[in-house]
Amino acid sequence: MNTSNIRNFCIIAHIDHGKSTLADRMMELTSTVDKREMKAQLLDSMELERERGITIKLTPVTMKWHNHELNLIDTPGHVDFSYEVSRSLAACEGAVLVVDASQGIQAQTLANVYLALEADLKIIPVLNKIDLPAADIPRVSREIINLLGCEESDILKISAKTGLNVEQVLDAVVAQVPPPTGRSQDPLRALIFDSYYDDYRGVILYVRVVDGNLRKNDQIHMIATSANGIALEIGKLSPNMLPAPELKTGEIGYIVTNLKTTRDARVGDTVSLTKYFTKDTK
Question: What pLDDT score does 9 carry?
Answer without folding.
Answer: 96
